Input
Amino acid sequence: MTRPNGSYPRPLREDQARLTRRRVLDAAHELFLAHGYTGTTIDAVAGHAGVSVQTVYNAVGNKAALLAAVYDTVLAGDDAPVPIAQRPTFQAMLAETDGRRCLARYAALGRELGERAVPLVAVILAGSADPAVRALADTAENQRAIGTATVARHCAERFGLRPGLSVDDAADILWTLTAPEVTIRLVLRRRWSWDHYQTWLADTMADSVLGPPPPRSRRRPKTHG
Output
């Protein structure tokens, strides 16, 4: 429905703008994965999305902005403006009452994010010679460091860290173990399954930050007098 002056109602215009933006991001995502950052052009994105070049600029921005927007959308799984730390999976992790289960949930979150984002992260790392891509990679690493520091503090306050381990060192350990480069090496290069990766990550994080699990108690055999 249009108004007498030929314009669309505002909610409809906003819906159309969101759909156009998503179409542009989906097209850019496919092309970045297929051709890398350098091999992808705004003209190609526009053609793949079925829109004009100017529409790409209006909807998202230049190529660096496209890569950043695609990364944010892929990492979150949608284009809702809700930080990872406020999403149900992260909140369920914080609600755990056992330290190893907490970090097991953190490993599951790492797997969830990795399955969606690792191929694109590989593109970002490969294109990091470009200053704009390097800036995106640095921003992503800084955000990840904030997240791992949050988890380290939570573990320290709620469960206690292994003897002699500071919160800062715990944060650095989590930051290293969850690094995309580690995921890429194990899953893409060494062909680990995601199940194998998730189990390894959960156990290694817990052993490194909380300490090894207590030995299972053994039931004494019954004696007959």
The chain has two domains: 11-76, 82-212. The two ends are 91 Å apart (CA to CA).
